[in-house]
Amino acid sequence: MQYTRSFLRSYILITVLLLFFDVDHAQDLFILDSVNSAKIDQVLSRNISVADVDNDGLQDIILSGFDDLNRDGLFLDIYSVTGPTTIDTFQMDVFDPEFDENIGFAKYIGGNGGMDLSDFDRDGWIDILLHGSKNLFLSKNLGGNSFSSNNYIDDAWLINTDLRWGDVDMDGDLDIILIGILIHPANNQEYIINVLLLNNGGTFDGDPNMVMPSLHNGGASWGDIDLDGDPDLIISGQSADPLSGVTRLYKNDPIGRLAEDTNQELLGLKGTAICFADLDQDSDPDLILSGWSPMDNDLRTIIYVNEPTGTFRPADQQIDFGTVYGTIEASDLDLDGWVDIAISGVTEHAMIPDSTYDLVNPDTTELGDTLSVDTLWQVTFHDTVIALGAKIFINNGDLSFTESQSFPGARTLSFCDIDQDSAPDLILSGSSGIGNRDSTFCQIYLNTTTGFNTRPAPPGVLEAFAVSDRAIFNWSPGTDDHDPEISLRYNVRIGTGNGTFDLLSSAVPFNTTNLGTRHVREFKEIAWGDYYWSVQTVDATGLRSDWSDEERFFIPRLVSSTQSLPGVVYGSSKWADINEDGNLDLAITGQLYTGASVTKLFMNDNGLLTPVSPAPSIQSVYGGHISFADYNNDGHLDLTLSGLQIYNFAPNPATLFYVWENGIYIEDLQSAVPWLSGGSNNHDWGDYDNDGDLDLVVGGGDYDGLNHLDIFTNNNGTLTLDTSQSELVPIYPCLTNWNDIDRDGHMDLVTVGGGILDPSSPSDTTLFTQAYINNGSGKMIRSADHYLDLGVTAGSIALGDYNSDGYDDIALAGKNNTNDEIITLIIRNDNGEGFVEHQVLQGIFFGEVDWGDYDNDGDLDLIASGLTDPDSEIAGDFGSDPVTMVYEQNSGYFSSDTTLSTLDSTGISSTMWGDYDLDGDLDLFLTGRLQNRDFVAKVYDNLESINNANNVPGKIMIISNTVHQDSVTLGWQAPIDPGNAPDPLVGNTPGSGLRYLLQMGGDLNYDLSANTHSIISGNYGVGHIGSITGTDRTIIDIPEGRYQWRVRAMDHSRAHSDWSDWDYFYIDLTPPVVDTIQANYGVSGQIILVIGFEEEFEMDDLSLDAEPHIVVTNPDIPDIDGNGTADTLDVIKQSYSARVWTGLLTLPDDYVGRAIEIHISNATDKRGNVMVQETVFKTPEKVISQFGGTAISADGQVSVLLPQNAVNEDVSITINPVSSEVSLSAYVTVISGYYDIDPSDITLNKPVIIRMAIPDLSVGSDTTLNPFIGYMVPDDPLPQFLGGSIIRVNDRSFLQAQLSHFGRYATFITDSSLSLDSLNTDILKCYPRIFSPAGSVFEFPSTNILFDLSEADDVTARIFNLSGRIKRTLNSDLPFGPGHNVLVWDGKDMDGKVVPSGLYIVTLERSGPMLRTTVGVLNR
Prior knowledge:
By secondary structure, the chain is mostly beta strands.
């Protein structure tokens, strides 16, 4: 019933339209096909597309639009053309749209979006992308039977959109340009969105590098305007301002990167329709735009001629018919070979103002600027559609056009050969009355052009080739009966099997092509393998030829790049990231075709190798070896060269070093290293002594013809010959390589060459292979188990773990002169116990071998390049029979990859793997001489990563360190090396095959300027240097300090994991020392001792065995209890945390005085360093004026005694050693340190006794040496003489004297007599006047008997009680000198017993009159 009503409505509408148009059909190009028109639902479409959706060879019709009466808004209908006069329904209402009821005027013109067709998944079937009216929907063609209702793209609420497919990056899959408005579903906020969506295997990601002007309500289109093979882009529409119009053109250069061409002056439009078409038959696409022009406030169509190619200029004649929100189609409608134009859309349009805002409170400035006004109307605008229509314009062949036919009410149109007569017919949809839902129509018009249009012929010649990561397909022109060759277009079909199209699909919409007019199709990053391809010609009507005969094209895994490099022989080459930008740079040495030698560096500028300019001052060598290693540990790769130099027209050996300084290489003269030449691989870097830095081994012959094999230890970048190596056999030629052959954590040495094994037969030179095993102390030992009676000349060696057992194996190539055999051998390392010949390969010499996993299957493969003819060397023709062989490993055995036949076969060559383009596979560098004697240097790009990119090993997560004095053992857990997609178990390097790179240096947490490479540099070249196997390493001889380290893994493809997080440790070689001591004197003889230790790192404050031992003795009376032996007092620990120890000392009642001698020992840090015992002297911090007291220096060398009331107030006295640079008089010699006694400005009321330690002196009555205490007067070279008496305390010699002020003092000797101005030889005094020898009533356990002498004299003092009984006689074994002198009475009688309390008489007998005084004793 519904169908009947639809049919009747269609029939009535057709009748009305016939009357309305009132057309003379004999004159018209197109006439209505009412029968087929009636088969199509008469709805208003926004887009009509034509394509063969079922691959039956007939074009089908796809309609999309907006119908909110009979549909859920946006609809998608498909009709199948099944014969010349037959149209059937294929599929209606393909998807269930998001209904948008607020699309404004767009509901009256079919919606505010559109559709575009493509085979997005390259399965050979056309798919449909629908957008707008709050929808984004990608429907997949299900094999020509139906279209999926599932969405194959992320849904989005889009309006005012245009989306177009285009292969912007030329990789074969189609990308999307989107312009429009995105509505946020949560808050209905609208955002203008312009984005390039890159197709990554069916997922679409925005290109962050694309910058566009934020347009909507317009159009976008791809076209190769400059005929460079890649699609350029034009977008046009309005910005946020509804009265705006913008048109922008973007050139695709380089491929995949769109940049605006600001030199093009294109009319800004909104509601724009865009069409590229070759209007003048010159092969480049011209441009037609139609839309609303804000500049003209009118609808405009403007034609731009592409002339010269890539530049648009307005055509001399323009079409006076414009539309907005329309469509432009181009096709040869009259079969004359010239492309005609059809334009449809809104023909009458207005911008209507609305939305006003009332602003009040008027005010203006003196300059007339408005701050506010009474009423300000802010106006916005909206579009109003008044009428629709379409017109056909015929191309006159001179870039002028004649109107042919018009179709009022037509909203959109397209061309399709409905009747199969090879002439394009017309399909259009529209409305005869805007807003009248019953006036919509969809009609078919047949082309009435007479004549024939035969199918064009396909191209006859097809060719293809690959260069770098690009493949080029090209062909001869096709032919056509109407169109010239230059204007013919082409479809290309490319697949990996016969008749397939998985690289480039043949499914494209009608009257479009996947290429255009060019005869070449370039692909970027095309995978290696077999391809089958064919080409189809398309004429201006959209008629297609048959497909050409299919061609097969093989792309090898390794293809030549476009690098321009100097060809060399006798070369050595290395990849390394020299400038630390993350890209591998290249160094080349060798001999040029001219005969000159060269050393050149090439910087990698995002894949382009460019010579360093200006060229660095690096000497040229050939026939040697080049290496990169940071041997001075500054974090930058240094350069080492060895080989031959031409000097005085003759080759001479050379060994050269260059360090990286501020971006350039500076020669580093390592004077200890001889200049040697030994061929390729004659030197190598490795840490054989396990101190972290790289040491050097170098071998070969010197200028005098002597052979060498020398090891040089690295000391902060300076190389020193290791003379302890007694077992090394000098060899020439020399191949050498550091390697931990036996996996014991110590670098061993592998050598190959000719040398004298038996010193008793110096003329017997033998070619041999010898590994020297490191004995663990850096001594290299010749191992019989690691000796092979096999050696080579003109050879090469490479070590690598081909079987991933953790032990590196050997690839060895060269000429064995013993039997003139040319060899290439795989030698297996038998678990470190010896070498076993594993496999014989094609022999080469004058070449090089290198390991690398070039096919990303997780095991090592081998490249070998060189000469193969043993007779060529004799003939002097080094170009004979060169080969380059890549050996692919399968289960431990190697076979030649025969698919790589395009590799240059080179001899006298060098070669190396390295991923210089950072695409996840190993590329190949190759130099040498071809069979035709040409010299080459080539980079071959590896295409493996396109379908099988290597995944880097996982980041190492668990690391640890164990410190032993000045060494550290680093450990880590092996990471997982993930396999490669799609199978995660395929392509991974086994854990035992991983190698590791370390970095160790100063800790930045403690020193922001620390060198984090100071111990182990984290900057590595490409190859084995510095890398290790295993998951632990011990570094020795590390200086004291704080360090950080990290590790990363490297797989067989030389891909690095991310660095692990930093781990930290410290090396502590210095034992703790005492920093501060506080003695807090309390009551009852208790003293709190607080001892602070100076320790850079951590004290061991947890272990009882590591705690400090603290004891105290009496500095004056060691025998505290009077039992005849020295006593010690224990200090009881109170606390110990970090660096501070606190303890309690209790002085016994019989302790005499308050001075203490503190003995500190056993304090231990966390690294087991035990302190050296220290002794510190302490007295109370303050001297109490009323009682007097003693102050002592911390080292016990100096003390002062203040008697009671010697100062007016309590005072803190400090005695500190100081340095002094005073120039003394010639007859005075200092015999002690200088000490400052402070405060120096205090007033002393009484003489103070100073005691200073002196060395034991031979001073007697028969010597002229006079020791004395001197006061240092500032700026006076002669100390002020105080004199002094020598006393012995605890078996140590001291000088005692009295002083009248504080300051700087020292002890001296002189052989001259000195005079004192202040001597008073008639006075005898005792200080202190009262003392306590038996207890601590007073601090002083003794009294000082003070007297002055004018000259040396024998003196005796006698002590009497008040009864006149003598108690003690005091004298000295030595005469007393001139000056102030002191005798000490300890308060004991002649029996050694303390005298009772009381008053005592003191007499002094001398040469002059006797002196007398009294002193008091007060005991407990």
